[in-house]
Amino acid sequence: MYVLIFIFIASASASRRPPLNVLGSATLRDLQDLLNTTGKIYVYSLTHAPNYYVGGEACLYYVPEKVNETFFLLHMNYSEPSRSTPYTVYAELFPGGERHNPFMRERLGLGNTSYHDLLLVTYKPSVGCALFVLYIDDTRYCEVHVREDNLYSYYETPGSICTDYQEEICGTNVYNLYKPRCQPNSHWRIL
After folding, report:
1. Average pLDDT per run of 10 along the chain, which is 191 residues long?
2. Source organism's superkingdom (predicted)?
3. Which end of the chain has less neighbouring CB within 10 Å, N or C?
4. β strands within the chain, DSSP E
5. Which pairing describes strands 103-107 and 71-80: parallel, antiparallel, or unpaired?
6. Is the dihedral of CA 34, 104, 137, 112 positive or negative?
7. Nearest 5°: phi and psi at 103?
8. What's residue 159's pLDDT?
9. Quick one: how far is CA 101 from the chain centroid?
10. What CATH code would you report for 5-10+34-182?
11. How far is the C-alpha of 108 from the C-alpha of 87, rounded, in Å?
12. In the prediction, which pLDDT does 153 show?
């Protein structure tokens, strides 16, 4: 997910089509399964963090609302200790194919011509993580999303398949956006 509304606004034109190579073996069903929850999904880490993220106190999560099999409203919440910014992203799902991975086309409003395509590389239900690839100005970036009910084990267990793929595909310049303080009522937030 193009991490913030600020990044989305900065790129006013539609994202370019991804290269022809398909990464991973994800399916449209995997993408639907990830989003089929009433819980939060955290943007755990990414490789395209703006400078103000580094060392910051920001948290980003969304709660998906299913409209139909291929359309979801993502109720986003970007928060810092002093404020919270809720907004809605419109996500349309598309199947993978011979030339691309299944992807989620995200827009800030219905009819908005600006969008980002998040290509699903892998979703591992047992770990609760998904790796997405997106392209901004022909540069490939990665995001790891983790379901809320899997956060503790994901955080405590280094070297998950999503993290490994993220480093393999997008390099080691990764910013971990998620921190235990993102869940203020968590029993392990003091970590």
Report:
1. 40 46 84 95 84 64 96 90 82 86 91 90 92 89 93 80 88 83 57 37
2. Eukaryota
3. C
4. 41-46, 59-68, 71-80, 83-94, 103-107, 116-124, 129-136, 139-147, 175-176
5. unpaired
6. negative
7. -145, 165
8. 72
9. 15
10. 2.40.128.20
11. 8
12. 83
Tokens of 48: 């395209």
- Strands 83-94, 175-176: pairing is unpaired
The radius of gyration of the chain's CA atoms, rounded to the nearest angstrom, is 15
pLDDT of 12 reads: 37
Q: Which residues pair with 42 in a beta bridge?
A: 61, 146
Tell me if 5 sits within 8 A of 108, measured CB to CB: yes
What's the longest Cα–Cα distance across the chain?
46
Residues in the chain: 191
Token pair 């991975």 in the structure block, residue: 101
Q: What's the whole-model pTM score?
A: 0.83
Instruction: Judge contact between 120 and 112, C-beta under 8 A.
Output: no
Boundaries of every domain in the chain: 5-10+34-182
Cβ(47)–Cβ(171) under 8 Å?
yes
Q: What is the pLDDT of residue 9?
A: 34
Torsion of CA 176, 185, 126, 72, to 10 degrees: -80
The pLDDT assigned to 20 comes to 46
The CA distances from residue 130 to 80, 124, 180, in Å, are 24, 6, 19
